[in-house]
Amino acid sequence: VQLVESGGGEVQPGRSVTLSCVASGFTFSSAGLSWLRQAPGKELEWVATITSAGLTAYGAAVKGRFTISRDNDKNTLYLQMNSLKSEDTAVYYCLEGKSRGQGTQVTVSS
Q: In whole angstroms, what is the distance from residue 85 CA to residue 87 CA?
């Protein structure tokens, strides 16, 4: 299993960013997938999950601002993040089963 995240960077509060995770090594269309994040000095936090059927669920901190989606033709998972706050600053990881990518840093700062 290989998961490669991209799309992070520095962004101002209130702006939007979309993260991508390109996957390989498993049957993407059959897999439930998630985004996690880890802020400096804090534990890993669950952000969102999408099932193989496209059902979604979100953590309380991001519900209503973030959208998880998938493109099975491209083996790619997305996380659209709107109305970003400083507390969204973290390394964001995509997760499939017990496999996790290397992460992409998102820094929200004015």
A: 5
Q: What six digits make up the tokens of 110?
A: 């004015």
pLDDT for 28-40, tens place per residue? 999 999 999 999 9
> Cα-flanking dihedrals φ and ψ of residue 12, to 5°?
-80, 150
What DSSP string describes the chain?
-EEEEE--EEE-TT--EEEEEEEESS-GGG--EEEEEE-TTS-EEEEEEE-TT--EEE-TTTTTTEEEEEETTTTEEEEEE-S--GGG-EEEEEEETTEE---EEEEE--
Tens digit of each residue's pLDDT (9 = 90 or more) over 65-79 = 999 999 999 999 999
φ/ψ of residue 29, rounded to 5 = -65, -20
Q: Low-confidence residues of the chain, pLDDT below 70?
A: none
